[in-house]
Amino acid sequence: MACLTGQFDPKKGVGLQVIVIPPTCSAHGVEVPPSAVPRLALIDTGTTTTIITPQIVQELGLQPTGRMRALVGTMQSGPVQTYCVTLVLPMNGETGVFPALEVLEAPLEDGPIQVLLGLDILSRGVFTMSCDGHFTFSL
């Protein structure tokens, strides 16, 4: 079983490095290109579908696969572009590869976070957070 564990700051949430690449670049058993850039992601249990920033879309040259009405942020609702990507999580010597994952594009507040990991990822495994500041995500 692939497992990701670590510590988190309860005031900031669970942040981790992920790799986002175009869906044609990777599948199970294929190496991630050396040019792939790790992105800071925040696990967001209130997000249904994983979100990436316009910066990632532009850098990877992704093409939209559709549009979806989404609630982004506390009060903003409207249509957003959807994209297909491969998402890679580093998981204790193994990788959690999520090929052909449909994600939403939305701007996030200025800062280092470029990905919000939603329930579309978390529901594929078991995610726990402890009051002592430890988290575990197992596939």
Protein traits:
139 residues, 3-stranded antiparallel beta sheet, 10 strands, mainly beta, 6-stranded mixed beta barrel, Cathepsin D, subunit A, domain 1
Please tell me about this protein's structure:
Helices cover 8% and strands 50% of the residues. With 139 residues, the protein is mainly beta. The protein has a single domain (14-27, 36-138), classed as Acid Proteases (Cathepsin D, subunit A, domain 1, Beta Barrel). The strands form two sheets. A six-stranded mixed barrel has the order 2-3-8-4-7-6. A three-stranded antiparallel sheet has the order 1-10-9, with no helix packed on it. Strand 6 (76-91) and strand 7 (94-105) form a beta hairpin. It is globular. The N and C termini lie close together (6 Å).
Please specify the SSE layout and strand pairing.
Blueprint: E1 3-7, E2 15-21, E3 38-43, E4 51-52, H1 54-60, E5 66-72, E6 76-91, E7 94-105, E8 113-117, H2 119-122, E9 126-129, E10 134-138
Parallel strand pairs: 3-8, 4-7
Antiparallel strand pairs: 1-10, 2-3, 2-6, 4-8, 5-6, 6-7, 9-10
Q: Short summary of the structure?
A:
This protein is 8% helix and 50% strand. A hairpin with a 2-residue loop joins β6 and β7 (94-105).
Report the total helices.
2
- Write the element-wise H/E pattern from the N-terminal end onward: EEEEHEEEEHEE
* Protein structure class: mainly beta
Number of strands: 10
Shape: globular
What characterizes the major β-sheet? 6 strands, mixed, barrel
CATH class: Mainly Beta
Strand coverage percent: over 45%
The rounded Rg comes to 15 Å
Mean residue pLDDT: 86
Label the CATH architecture: Beta Barrel
Strands across the major sheet, in which order? 2-3-8-4-7-6
* Tally of individual domains: 1
Q: Bin the helical content.
A: under 10%
- CATH overall fold name: Cathepsin D, subunit A, domain 1
Residue stretches low in confidence (pLDDT < 50, at least 5 long) are: none
Query: Whole-Å distance between the termini?
Result: 6 Å
CATH homology superfamily name = Acid Proteases
